[in-house]
Structures are given as C-alpha cells and as structure tokens.
Design brief:
Structural class: alpha+beta
Strand content: 5-15%
CATH superfamily: Cytochrome P450
Number of helices: 19
Helix content: 40-55%
Distance between the termini: 106 Å
CATH architecture: Orthogonal Bundle
Largest sheet: 4 strands, mixed
Shape: globular
Number of domains: 1
Strand order of the largest sheet: 3-4-8-5
CATH topology: Cytochrome p450
CATH class: Mainly Alpha
C-alpha cells in the first residue's frame, strides 16, 4: 500500500511548532552553505571555514597584517573566504612575480567586488575588450600629453610651497595641502584647470573623497562586500559612500560641461579634449607619502644644494644626479607600503600556481607587504634605510621593489606619480626644514582605506636660510 507523501509531510509539520521549523530551516541552510564553501580539489589550503562568515581573522588588526600571520602555517599561497567572496592570497616576490608577470595574461581581469563594482566603473573594474580599449586609449593619451606633466607639477609645487609658507613655521597638518596639490595635478591634466587651495567646495569634495575611501576599506565596507544582498537594504555608515560618490560625480560633470562650453577645438590639450568621459579622481592610490622621513633629510638637503641650488626649480633631469634623494624616495615608498594587498586580480582561465589548481574566475590577492618587508630580500626590512637602494654611492634598482604592482594591471599612473613625488619632495626640502612640534613625536601609525595612509599629525616647516 502506497502512503501519500505530501499529506503525511503536512500532517507532520502541523504537529511541529514554529520554533522547531525555524531551527530545522536554519540548520538546513547552514549545511547547504557549508557544503558550498568547501574548497575545490587541489585548491590552496587555508584556515577552517565556518557557515555564513567563512574565515575568521583578527579584525582588530589591519587585514594585510592579519593575513601575514597565516603565512607561517599555510605557506606563500593559501585561501580565505569572507562571506560570499573567496580569495587566494599570494606572498613573497617569487610567487607574486610568477602570478603577475609570468602569467600576466591569465591574471589580467578584476573580480566583481560588490562595493567597488557599484562605484568604480572605469579602468579599475572593467575587463576584457572594454578594459583593453580603455587602457590603450588612456596610455596613448597620457603619453601624448606627457611633455606637459613636468611643467604642471613644477607649477603646482610653487603653489604648494606658498601655501606652506603661510603657516609661518607654526605646527600644521600637511595632509590636505599635499592632497590638494596632487588632486590639482589630476584636475589640470583632466580638466585643463586647477583649484585654489582655499576653494571651500574643492576642499569639501576632497574631504568627502577621503571619507569615501576610508569607509570602503573599513569593517562596514568589507561587510557590504561579504553580504551585498543583505547590506544593500540596511542602514549604516557605509551609506555615506554612495552619497559622497554622487556628489563627486555631479561636480565632475559640471566641470566637464563648463570645459566643453569654454574651449574650442584649437585650444585642446587636456584629457577631456581627447575623451569627453566622466573621470573619477584616483589620487588616493598614487598620493606621495611624506611622513616617513628620518635623519637622512640632512643628506638630501646637501644633495639638493649641490645639484639644484636655491635659484631654480627642481626638474626630472636632476634625478639622475641625485642618487641619495632617489634612494630616500624609494625607501619612503617601500616603508609606506601604500597598497598593502595590491588590487585584486581574477584568472581568465584555469591555471596552476605552485602546484595548486586555480579554476577560471579565481580571485587573487597579492601581498605586496610580504615583498616590501621580506627578510630574505631587504637587509633591514623593518628600518627606514636608504642604503637598500644604494651601491657604491649610486642608485640601484631592486627587482623586489613593486610599489605600483606588476603585470597587465599595474598602476597606469606610475610615471606621473614618480614625477610628482620627486618634484614635490625636492621643491619642499629646497625651501624648508621639517621637524616635529615641541613635545610631539612622529610615528608610523596609519589608517587603512583603499590605501594605507598616515594618521593625522602635526609638523613644522621652517624656512631654510
């Protein structure tokens, strides 16, 4: 005799109360989630995975440091999961080079990270044919107008020196002055004009952008990425990200519209004239880091006085004759560790890395921190030491020095960033001696947004006699 299935099931459910049904449903969903999170065959190992959350890490520590703690146990390649996102973490110069350089074509895509995908819809998150066309256009355009890069940076360095002179040797926070200078270079190249440092709307937008990037890299931003379907409907501090970004886009659109009205074709020469598309400032990724200075500054002063003097502006041609200054700047970038985990890559096809099988669509996180502080590469990795980049008094390149990453998706603004860093740095040290205020101590403390930024600090700029 055959017993009807559905009537029996309904009868059984009627005898159960709501709490028991809820418990059974939750247990079922947890089991399904756990099965879904199982690592594929021959996939890089990693910490135990838990339902819903995935990998537990010490969230009191910055993510790049929390992941570094896993290296002794799991080696230079391991996997972690945060909510719905799975990452393969790669450590050490040889392993990172194997992935980004030797397999550059395979790791040439960006993963679909929810928050970044909703905000950055340009070069940072596009893939395939669209990305190749955008990058080709951007690089060719920047190359075409690169002759004016140096002139724009030199001009802005004069404004930066003037705004710092206004402090008259009193303590001040240099963050937004330097941020304004770097942003003005981007605006000058993109829009054909700059903004006054005292422009209230410009400063408001810079503060909004800084808060946006801080929130993206915060716990709330990571929570949104892990559970986008849930977080999209919830209130929270991360909502400011979208408000700030809309404000920024409106500002950029206004500037572009005004620019198109004012400039004729004969007056072209900036990025908009080449491509009338909405651009989003990415200066956080490339902003020169100034607080990591040490007693080496006295030697830099001597080199500036010897090569440049006090009667003219620094130029990029001077760099070849200033090995010590170049070494100091490289060491600033190394210890500054601006993008600790790089920008994630995604595999375009199945591949093998260190003997592990990585299916198509695997998201790769490259620990640039593990390279910048590798004890097998750097003589004194935890100490600010320009000698890392000097040999017999001359500047030497280091293979394991990758502040702008490597491969197909390396930072396209590297040339401009290096120009800004050298000219701003030498222009400031040509005019000023920087020191900490009385009873104040400069530290390496930082906050982590999309980039690693120094915490607010005060400094004095004393005119050099």
């Amino acid at each position: 005799m055959q017993i009807p299935f559905w009537p029996v099931l309904l009868s059984l459910l009627e005898k159960l109360n709501g709490q028991i049904v809820l418990v059974i449903l939750v247990m079922f969903l947890l089991i399904v989630d756990l099965l879904r999170k199982r690592r594929p065959r021959n996939f890089p190992p990693g910490p135990q995975l838990f339902p819903l959350v995935g990998t537990f890490v010490d969230f009191k520590r910055p993510l790049h440091l929390a992941l570094q703690k896993l290296t002794p146990q799991y080696g230079n390649i391991f996997s972690v999961q945060f909510g719905s996102l799975t990452f393969v973490v790669v450590n050490g110069y040889q392993m990172v080079r194997e992935a980004l350089v030797h397999q550059a074509e395979i790791f040439a895509d960006r993963p679909n990270i929810p928050l970044l995908q909703e905000i950055f819809k340009g070069l940072i998150s596009s893939n395939g044919h669209i990305w190749r066309q955008q990058r080709k256009f951007a690089l060719s355009t920047l190359k075409s107008i690169s002759v004016s890069f140096e002139e724009k940076v030199q001009e802005e360095s004069r404004y930066l020196v003037e705004i710092i002179e206004e402090e008259k040797g009193q303590p001040f926070d240099p963050h937004y002055k330097i941020n304004s200078a770097v942003s003005n270079i981007i605006c000058s190249i993109t829009f054909g004009s700059r903004f006054d440092y005292h422009d209230s709307r410009f400063q408001e937008l810079l503060h909004s952008l800084a808060e946006t990037l801080l929130l993206i890299g915060s716990f709330w931003g990571q929570l949104y990425n892990a559970f986008p379907l849930v977080m999209r409907w919830l209130p929270g501090p991360f909502r400011k990200i979208f408000r700030h970004w809309e404000k920024l886009k409106c500002f950029v659109k206004e500037v572009i519209a005004k620019h198109k009205e004012e400039l004729s074709l004969a007056e072209s020469g900036d990025y908009i004239d080449w491509e009338p598309a909405t651009q989003s400032p990415r200066n956080e990724e490339r902003r020169p880091r100034m607080p990591f200075l040490s007693l080496s500054i006295e030697k830099v002063h001597l080199e500036i006085d010897s090569v440049i003097g006090q009667s003219r502006q620094p130029a990029m041609d001077d760099k070849e004759n200033m090995p010590y200054t170049s070494a100091v700047l490289s060491e600033v970038l190394r210890m500054g560790n601006i993008v600790p985990l790089g920008v994630p890559r995604m595999s375009t096809s199945d591949t093998t890395l260190a003997g592990f099988h990585l299916p198509k669509g695997t998201t790769l996180m490259t620990s640039l921190t593990s390279i910048m502080f590798d004890k097998t590469v750097w003589e004194t990795p935890d100490t600010f030491n320009p000698e890392h980049f000097l040999e017999n008094g001359q500047y030497r390149k280091r293979e394991a020095f990758l502040p702008f990453s490597a491969g197909k998706r390396a930072c396209p603004g590297e040339q401009l960033a290096r120009t800004e860093l050298f000219i701003f740095f030498t222009a400031l040290l040509q005019r000023f001696t920087f020191e900490a205020p009385v009873h104040a101590e400069l530290t390496f403390d930082f906050t982590l947004s999309l980039t690693r930024c120094p915490k607010p600090f005060q400094i004095r700029a004393l005119p050099r006699c």
